[in-house]
Each structure stands twice: as C-alpha cells, then as structure tokens.
Design goal:
heterodimer, A: about 260 residues, alpha/beta, Rossmann fold, 10-stranded mixed β-sheet, 10 helices, globular, B: about 325 residues, mainly alpha, MetI-like fold, two-stranded parallel sheet, 2 strands, translocase (chain A), P-loop_NTPase (chain A), Phosphate ABC transporter ATP-binding protein (chain A), ATP hydrolysis activity (chain A)
Chain lengths: ~260, ~325
C-alpha cells in the first residue's frame, strides 16, 4: 500500500510541531526517517496511524492517504486505521499479564472476534515464524511474554503487529533499547517483512537507515522552538552518497549544525 | 546517613562546622519523630486489643438474660456477624461497579476540565459525616424507596432477598445498603482512579496500536495493570462498611436474626449497630457482652484485611 502525504502539519493545541510535510511512500518498501531529537519524525510517524490522537489536543492539517483513502476523512474510524497500519514501539511492550501465545493473538481477539483453536494456533505460528521467533519460543508459548529477553520481546511485539495482517508497519526506533545482536536480528527481519508489508521506520542510527531502507527522509528543525520539517526525501543510496541538500550532508557526515 | 559522618568528605570542610552539625540534628529529630509515630500506632492498636480482651472476655459467659434473648454468646454473635458481613457485601455489590465506572470516567473518558471537578466532588462525599448519611437514609431515601420495596417484593419474590412482606416505611437493610454504598464509594473510587491513571502509557499504546477501541484498551491494558490496586480498594471499602455504625443503626429497624430478606420490617442487625444502640442502657454484664461482640468484629476485620493483603501479594507475585 502506498502512502501519499500532502502538506501535512501537526499541532499540539496551539503548538505547531511539524510543518508542511509532503512525501510519497512506495508500497512494499522500507522508508526510514532520520533527524535530530525533537525534530518531529516520531510525531509524524504517529500521524500515519492516528496514534498522535492519544494526546489530547493533537491534530493534523493537510492530507494523508493510504492506498488512495484519506485516513482523516470524516467517516474514518481511527480504530479501523490502526488495524490496517500496525505499530512497533521504542521499548518492547508485550502485555505483561498475557502469555506469549495470547500476546500474539491479542489483536486478533479484538472486536469480540471468536477464533477457533486450530485457526488460532495457525495464526500464532505464522506470526511467530514471520517474526523469526518461532524456534525460540515454540516450547513455551504458555509462558508470560515478559519472561523473554528484550530483543525477543520486541520480536514478539512485531509478531503481534503482523498477526492481524496489516498493510503498513510503523516502527518507532524499534532497536533503540536493544543490544547489537538483537538489533541485527530485527534488521534481518525488516528485510524479510518488506516483501509483505510497507514499512516505515524512525531511527537515530544512520547506519541502520542506510542498511535497511530503500528511501530516507531527513527531518530537521529550522531553529529551536520552530516546527520540524522534512528537509529531503530521496532514495537511501542517493541520500547517503550525494544528497540534494547541504544540511542533509552535514547531518549524515556528522558535521551537524 | 549524614553528610558530616561521610569519611570521604572534603578535608577542607570541618566536620563539626555549624552547617553539617545542623543537618545531622534535623536528621535525628526527624528520625525520632518518625519512629515515635510508627511505634505509637502499634501501641494504640495493642491497647485497643488489650482493652477489648480484658473487658470483653467475661462477656463470653454471663447470665443468659444478657444475650438479648439469644440464650448464649454464640447465639447472639453469629447472627450479628452474619448481618455485618451481609450488609457490607450488599454495599460492595452496589458500590464497586459504580466506583470503577466513575474512576474510569475520571481517568480515561472525561476531558480534563470535567474530570478534575468530578474527582473533587467524589472526594467531598467522603467528608460528609456518617450521621448525616444516616439521617438522609432514614428520613429521605427510605420513604422515597417504599415503592421500590413493594415492586421488588412483588416481582422478584422468587429471590430469597425479596420474598416476604415489604416494609411500609423503607427503613430496611435494602435502604441501609444503598446508603452504605454511597459512603464507601469515595474511597474505592479514589484508589481506583489513582491506579487507573498510573497505567503505563506504553501498555495503553500497545493496545490502541492494534486497533483496540477505548474499552478494549481498558480491558487489555488498564484492568490487568490495576488489578491488585482494585482489590485493595475494594477491601478498604469492605473494611469501612464492616465497621460503619450510624447508617445501619439509624436506618434499619433491627432484630438479631439470620435472614436474607432485605426489604422487610425486621432486619438483621450488624455488630456495630448493635453496640451503638445497646451500650447506653447497659448493666456491666450487658456491657461486657457488647464489648465481646466488638472483639469479634475487631478480629473479623483484621482477618479480612489480612486476606486482602494476601490476595494483593499473590496477584503481584504472578
């Protein structure tokens, strides 16, 4: 599913956090957002599944379309948007009281859906295999999800997100709380997931953006207290070798400022 | 721990200087106050227990005329204990759903400018003296509920609670339970509200990002997180309901009996109400019987609280 963004600005009450973002995200590709802290890249990511609405007073101007459908249309239910656009967070957040099995099925059981046991088993196995976690947990599916290591928990969260078969997967710094080995596991997973899902990832790690993404967007602040904006959006290769904008080059080469 | 006693302190600073000395005096004073306060509460509890024991134990075995026509201490205290528990449980059945709903409204549904005043008003409810609640129940709510009594006795008589002749003035255990429910509602609501509001945002977002509605998010993230807190809240409410005197003493026309029937003229009497109504016209023997029932109530409340702590601890260990 492609994502089209036109002139999107994001507000928290009176405060304008992000200004005039336009981009076109290709289906079944990985798009990375990079930029300094506080530049609005996570905020922008959250508007792609309306998660920013959790904060009272947050709203969006402009147009965001997923597969041609305006996700801010008057009859659009944010709950329905989030079922199509899954999300993985900065810190792994499996439901603490649920087993591994129930965590994976959590999304499928929403909206009072009844699932038969063999069907549920199939969903759990497929999602855990999809998240490269099956072999590690298949013998302890009934154990609590919190008993896993951080990297495994994060893959469990990815399994939970893909178990509902979304079309887009948003990842908000999914590796920032993980060690390098777990990070490598997640990056491999992102490569595999790309064949089924459109993935958008926010990362602070530029090498990671270079490794996993097809396109990269660089966000920056014009000045302190000013809203963030999208400086450049280009194929990752071009971005890291020959960026259009001198600010991008300065940021990527570490000469930021 | 004082800064002055730290051996690694800057050698340039005299450890006996006025500044460091003052800090340690404050420390000693505060520590003394804290220890005293903590010990005092234990001493007070022990004193109450000893008083109940010395004054009450003779009451277990006095002349049978002092047992309000029940023949023996057990004959008196068992119905009283039953009624105490029964009234408290009825109050909880009414209060808990309301409290949880109000707490959720305040923590997760209402916009801030409504949530804050609502929370404040609920807390104010806790400041109303129980005599006022009792008066309100007996004079206003009871008569108002007379048609409800009649309706329940007519249409739900297949339930033992409503099977019988309904009261004509509404001064029943049914009315008393409602008043009791209003009285324990603030404590349950405010504790639930606190724990609901502390639900980690990360868990809430996990549910929302999967496409949960707000109610589903509450079931997935808020309730599991708040479970042990909710148990504590309910148990505190139960503790208050068990010991509450005035509402029952003033509203329900009492009789020492075991009965599930709650809308009639004769209502099972609770220990606290029994003591409140009996102790003024007491002979020494009758008084020690009353104190002995108080001892039973004390032990019983103690057990309930211990049970609550055990449940909470078990919930946390999982």
């Amino acid at each position: 599913m492609s994502i089209q963004v036109k002139d999107a600005s994001i507000f928290y009450g009176d405060f304008k956090a992000v200004e005039d973002v336009s981009m076109s995200i290709k289906p079944k590709s990985v798009t990375a957002f990079i930029g300094p802290s506080g530049c609005g890249k996570s905020t922008f990511l959250r508007t792609l599944n309306r998660m920013h609405e959790v904060i009272p007073g947050a709203y969006v101007e402009g147009k965001i379309q997923i597969a041609g459908q305006d996700i801010y249309g008057p009859n659009v239910d944010p709950v329905a948007v989030r079922r199509k656009v899954g999300m993985v967070f900065q810190r792994p957040n499996p439901f603490p009281t649920m087993s591994i099995y129930d965590n994976v099925l959590a999304g499928n059981k929403l909206n009072s859906k009844r699932i038969k046991k063999p069907e549920a088993d199939a969903i759990v196995e497929k999602a855990l295999r999809g998240a490269n976690l099956w072999n590690e947990v298949k013998d302890r599916l009934g154990k609590p999800g919190m008993g896993l290591s951080g990297g495994q928990q994060q893959r469990l969260c990815i399994a939970r997100a893909i178990a509902v078969q979304p079309e887009v997967l948003l990842m908000d710094e999914p590796c920032s709380a993980l060690d390098p080995i777990s990070t490598a596991a997640i990056e491999d997973l992102i490569h595999e997931l790309k064949s089924d899902y459109t993935i958008v990832i926010v990362t602070h790690n530029m090498q990671q953006a270079a490794r996993v993404s097809d396109d990269t967007g660089f966000f920056n602040l014009k000045a302190a207290g000013q809203p963030g904006h999208l400086v450049e959006f280009n194929p990752t290769k071009q971005m890291f070798t020959n960026p259009d904008n001198p600010d991008t080059e300065a940021y990527i080469s570490g000469r930021f400022g | 721990m004082t800064v002055a006693a730290d051996p690694g302190a800057d050698p340039g600073v005299d450890p006996k200087s006025e500044l460091s000395g003052r800090g340690s005096v404050g420390d000693v004073v505060f520590r003394g106050l804290a220890v005293t306060a903590a010990s005092l509460i234990l001493v007070a509890l022990a004193a109450v227990f000893i008083f109940l024991g010395i004054e009450g134990i003779p009451g277990f075995n006095v002349d049978e005329q002092h047992y309000a026509g029940q023949g023996s201490f057990m004959g008196l205290v068992v119905p009283l204990l039953f009624a105490t528990m029964y009234a408290a449980v009825l109050a909880l059945i009414i209060a808990v759903p309301f409290s949880v709903a109000i707490a959720l409204f305040i923590s997760h549904y209402a916009p801030r400018r409504i949530a804050v005043p609502v929370a404040y008003v609920i807390d104010l409810l806790a400041a109303v003296p129980s005599v006022v609640f009792g008066l309100w129940g007996a004079v206003a709510l009871g008569p108002y509920l007379v048609p409800a009594h009649a309706w329940l006795a007519k249409n739900l008589a297949w339930l033992p609670f409503f099977d019988g002749q309904p009261s004509g003035n509404g001064r029943t255990l049914f009315t008393a339970s409602i008043v009791l429910a209003v009285m324990i509602l603030p404590i349950i609501t405010s504790i639930c509200r606190e724990v609901f509001a502390q639900t980690p945002r990360l868990h809430e977002e996990a549910a929302l990002a999967l496409g949960a509605t707000r109610w589903e998010m509450i079931r997935y993230a808020v309730f599991p997180y708040a479970r042990s807190g909710m148990v504590s809240a309910v148990m505190l409410g139960l503790g208050r309901a068990l010991g509450e005197t005035m509402a029952i003493a003033m509203i329900a026309s009492p009789k020492v009996l075991i009965s599930l029937f709650i809308v009639g003229t004769n209502n099972p009497q609770t220990i606290a109400a029994h003591i409140a109504q009996g102790y003024k016209e007491s002979t020494p023997d009758r008084l020690s019987v009353l104190i002995a029932t108080g001892l039973v109530l004390f032990a019983f409340t103690f057990l309930v609280n211990a049970l609550a702590r055990w449940i909470v601890a078990r919930g946390r260990a999982k």
